[in-house]
Amino acid sequence: MTGTIIITGANGSLAIPAVRHLLTKYPDHTAVLTVRNTEDTDSNTKKLRETIAKFPKAQTSIRQLDLANLSAVHDFANTIASEIAEKKLPPLASIVCNAYYWNLARDPEFTADGIETTIQVNHIAHVALVLRLLGSFRPEGGRIVLFTSDGHFPGKNGLEKYPPGIPDDLDSLLKASPDADKLGRGFNRYANSKLAILMWGYALNRYLEKDEKLRKITAIVIDPGSLTDSRALRTNTPQFLQYVQRFVLQPFRPILRFVDPALRTAADAGADVIELATNNAYPGERGYFKQLKREPSSPDSLNEDKQQKLWVKSAEWAKITKDNTVLASSI
Prior knowledge:
Radius of gyration: 19 Å
Shape: globular
Strand content: 5-15%
């Protein structure tokens, strides 16, 4: 089965090898690849364009999308839905919510919507994208791939100073204040966003399963592992992390994997993501995966009462209403 696969943050460390894997192994799919900057002045977009140029028969397009602007996300969703309705694009087979943001080196930053950037880019913007486009999937269904990390699970990540958690005041997730501990607080915001994604994904699957027209769409929330060659470790991070990547993680990864099997390359993770997105890995299944293995997520993530409260708030934050999603019964 073929269709359109949307990948956000498509010029990222995991996404570029994922695109290569998709175009190599599943060339009949259409790839819609979103980036913030579509020009070759962005070296990562240039690398993406060079990657897809090796597949001249592939149906691909690079689209501009800034997840830090919710109006832009809704406009993009409108465009994609219209192109599918007009048969300019095949119906959706998958949405891969790959784009991410973290800031471990500076004071908190905020989007054009006045929301702390980490939670908007990682979670809220993808909520808007997914819920706006559920009605554009193939009749035979498809896959939504969301991304979490071991940071969602207290005590599992070495950068954790403050345990992740979803507060009772959910709106406080949208706010942040300057703090001397930029690394610790920045990672906590990132970990909370990854916990929110996971909990929202559980709720999403419940609503999809209940809907007769949408139950063939499944959501996977994947922890792709610790990517030792990811430029994430060199972006918005303190210098010591960059040194650790360059002089420890990269050269010694084969040895370190005996201690921590989650250490891997972006190319390996990218292949996993495409196998999930095309429904070839774990066809028809739902839920949380650590790499390509079923493992339990954190106890906090399984709290269905908080999942539901977060579901309601996430729709509100993402400007989703009964009028702009086919999952209207959940709003």
